[in-house]
Design goal:
Layout: H1 4-21, H2 26-32, H3 37-44, H4 52-61, H5 66-79, H6 94-105, E1 106-113, H7 124-135, H8 144-159, E2 165-171, H9 172-177, H10 182-198, E3 202-207, E4 223-228, E5 236-240, E6 245-248, H11 251-267, H12 271-292
Parallel strand pairs: 1-2, 2-3
Antiparallel strand pairs: 1-4, 4-5, 5-6
């Protein structure tokens, strides 16, 4: 299915253009179509799922007809779709809902993981350890059991025959700095190796802590790039921050993050060398866990 979130963003652009073409403010449009200004603003920013009947009524009142009418109705219909993640509500976490939505329609996913392992490639036991670390920082914004179930859904989607290609550059510091038991980290690394070995659409490159990344400054946080099969759906860059995720669609912004990814990928180990490195680290961690037992 197409990503409802992506279609909401496209619908928002179209609705804003219609209003601006008629030289109307958001307040004027709201009064004209008997809606609140807040509702109009949220539709024009893609912040809410549209009601198809309300969109059709808005178009009728504004005299939109022909191909443009058909295009916007089709966008609104796609944007109003519900995915499997909607059945989880907020229990899976708002940020994870966004990622699940984008993944549902993605053709390719590329990411730089600076502070964590790819969520869709985490073992259940590893997720439990991360939840414990997260609880140290305050109340959780999700239910741990539902969050873990949602990640399992995402992994199944990724591994389906028609799933997206997935490329990630993993910063070496993640392997050493996450405070999880050595034996568990070893299990997680071997899980990554197994998945990548069995599924050619998924690749991991390790960026060593002493790797030099020429050509520009370093990225300031983890980020992900999504492309979609329909050309009109814009490539998106999602930037991971402590408080929220920033979604960028401006071509210049996306191009900068695409350049970041290409430079990081070039500076990282090859696919084969990355798996060898992870396997060696897993063996060392297993030996450390054994000596401490």
């Amino acid at each position: 299915m197409p990503s409802p979130y992506v279609r909401r963003r496209r619908l928002a652009v179209e609705l804003r253009k219609i209003r601006e073409d008629r030289d109307m403010t958001a307040d004027e449009l709201a009064r004209f179509v008997y809606q609140s200004r807040t509702k109009i603003t949220r539709l024009e920013t893609g912040a809410i799922r549209p009601d198809l009947a309300e969109i059709m009524d808005l178009l009728d009142r504004l005299g939109v007809t022909g191909p443009r009418y058909d295009k916007i109705v089709r966008l609104a219909r796609d944007a109003a779709q519900k995915g499997w993640w909607d059945s989880f509500g907020d229990s899976m976490g708002a940020r994870q809902r966004l990622y699940a939505d984008l993944e549902s329609g993605a053709d390719t996913i590329r990411g730089y993981n600076q502070t964590g392992f790819p969520a869709v490639l985490q073992l259940p036991s590893f997720i439990e350890a991360l939840v414990q670390l997260d609880e140290n920082q305050g109340p959780l914004g999700y239910r741990p059991d539902r969050m873990a179930d949602a990640r399992a859904h995402r992994q199944r989607r990724l591994l389906q025959p028609d799933g997206p290609s997935y490329e990630t550059v993993l910063d070496e510091c993640v392997v050493h700095r996450l405070a999880v038991p050595p034996a568990l980290m070893a299990d997680q690394l071997r899980h990554l190796i197994d998945v990548v070995t069995e599924e050619p659409r998924i690749s991991i490159r390790l960026l060593l802590h002493n790797a030099r990344v020429p050509g520009g400054l370093l990225p300031k946080s983890s980020f992900f790039l999504y492309t979609f099969s329909e050309p009109a759906d814009p490539t998106m860059a999602v930037i991971d921050t402590v408080a929220t995720d920033l979604v960028l669609t401006d071509r210049r912004d996306v191009a900068r993050y695409t350049e970041h990814f290409n430079r990081l990928q070039e500076a990282a180990l090859s696919k084969a060398d990355s798996l060898t490195f992870l396997d060696q680290v897993a063996d060392r961690l297993t030996n450390e866990a054994g000596s401490e037992a």
